[in-house]
């Protein structure tokens, strides 16, 4: 096993003096921050950064934590879709201000969306896939007055999915234009400054971010909504699940976001701790790079499909984290097919490898970030690959090192997590895990996992586009079923084996915590009953 960069095990944290409990007006949250690379909403990747920024930035709308199909007002108090489905008009609430004290105006909203498209960073892909671009941004986003925003859709699309997209932290985050542009450097529109500063209107502001150590959030005294109960939130980088469990048991932290199944299980009978599990977003999967000659062969990709122990991984590694799923659309979403029923079949995999010209297997590398549960997944997959003669060297490290290699298309295999699902719509999954409008290296469509894997099929792109604008619901469902079957027959570059569920452990006196399936768990509602 090759380890890239230091693994922060948090052992020094265990040597700190024990405390009876955290202060009543301060919330201490523990989770791994390996994948937090920037705090600029336009450039973020990964759920961990969303968990931070959802408490700093507001959107026009918010995705409801309980009813995933519901969209709630946030900075917009109302919105209206034009009769021809060609535009959406938002009316902003009055009196909302940014943390700087600047009023939230339609100019800030329009500028935030134009900045997103013109910088063309990771989060721009959510809107680019629906026809928005740097070239048409000026025409697409306009502000007739200080309280009105009009979004003109550049191509035919279901307007509801645009409204839902604007509820996602990242593409929908609204920034303080004046505050950011005071820190414009050589035309970067504040990108360098926003790496470790904030300019939002949310309930908290960024106090400090120390990479792979901690993030401190301070209550925003100018927040337009109900005042949060917590004066300060301290988010601590605790890479080791056992550290999170022990500190949660002692009361040194209030919430633990990324504990292992074993540690969550160990807490089930602790009266001082509660565990909450909700549906999450995306999938755990095995991904190949089709830039690699071996994995361009569909027989090799099919062999890998039968070298995953679907049931074993879900039973042993993914309790509290995942639920068995081998399709690219989560169960329960309209149009989702039942599981295909793939299972570990070493004999079949060996036969497929022989057909592909690899009767004795081959050597490769398998990447996984050093967090729970990825290392356990990688070790288990390494073992089943070996049964067919595939010798996979595990490479582990931070999110930047592992997913960075995937974004640069310089890898062979990855045991990862992703695939959309932040919106309650199959298009969200297909856009993230399948769709690839331009396979050229210079396109740098890094937020499309289809592009990262170099998987490209013009037909499936068109099928996805057509299904999204299909007005007949029954036909649309059939279209999405057909896409799933076609994708499976192509021997895809990404094979899901589990859909994500999220679990969190927290002190029993914490009230008002509600996990959000889109990773946008609001901590402004959290209180301590002491």
From TrEMBL:
Q: Keyword Signal on this protein?
A: yes
Location relative to the cell: Periplasm
Q: Which CDD domains match?
A: PBP2_NikA_DppA_OppA_like_7
Q: Which residues form the Solute-binding protein family domain?
A: 71-439
Q: Name one Pfam family in it.
A: SBP_bac_5
Query: Which keywords does this Swiss-Prot/TrEMBL entry list?
Result: Signal, Transport
Q: Does the keyword Signal feature in the UniProt annotation? A: yes
Give the family per the record. Answer: Belongs to the bacterial solute-binding protein 5 family.
Q: What is this protein called?
A: ABC transporter substrate-binding protein
Query: Organism classification, top ranks?
Result: Bacteria, Pseudomonadati, Pseudomonadota, Alphaproteobacteria, Hyphomicrobiales
